[in-house]
Amino acid sequence: METKTAIDLTKFCSDADSYMSDKTGKPWTRGDWTYATNGHVIVRLPAIAEFPDNKEAPNASSLQWSTVVTDDQWMKADQIKLEQDDCEACHGGQEPVHDCPHCACECESCDNGKVFDNPSVKVGSKTVQSKYLALLQSLPGILFAPDATSKEQVIPFKFDGGEGLLMPLRD
Fold first, then answer.
1. Would you list the DSSP string of the chain?
2. Distance from C-alpha of 72 to C-alpha of 68, rounded to nearest angstrom
3. What is the pLDDT of residue 103?
4. Rounded Cα gap, residues 89 and 96, in angstroms
5. Dist. CA 163–CA 158, nearest whole Å
6. Which of 26-30, 151-155, 158-162 has the lowest mean pLDDT?
7. Minimum mean pLDDT among 46-50, 85-89, 121-125: which range?
8. I need a labelling partner for 116 at 20 to 30 A (CA). Which of 86, 93, 102, 130 fits?
């Protein structure tokens, strides 16, 4: 069993205020895999010892992990146009959100100083939420296979050290 990962898996977990946080609020290991999910994106890597099993977590092994993807179906992240602008409320993360002393509050209008020109984006023939695509684009060597599954099924992806599934939007 592997002991550490360079990838911060917690950013793929449910937020503390999510109704799923007790089940998916932190990564868990089950069998040969360590998983992290927020309900829209799930990633898995070979088992990592620092993340114990969580009996409340879903049975992630039952998902579409065995989708056959041919070499020509993989798409590089740089083939997907994701337009972002600086947030006007916090000026791209350069100014405090409000006037409280030693403000460390996060801007509710953006994501780390950026706003998306469009809340959704096409990935192959499928549409996904821009914020989840941006999250996944931070993974090293990320590749997507949007057309390896039928219209409303998950989008398989792989990255250096792991793989995952992204839930598309309904058109």
1. -B---SS-GGGGSPPTTSTTHHHHSS-EEETTEEEEE-SSEEEEEE-BTTS---TTS--GGGSSTT----GGG-EEGGGS---EEE-TTTTTTTS-SS-STT--PPPTTSBTTEEESSSEEEETTEEEEHHHHHHHTTSTT-EE-GGGS-TTS-EEEEETTEEEEEPPBP-
2. 12
3. 62
4. 9
5. 4
6. 151-155
7. 85-89
8. 102
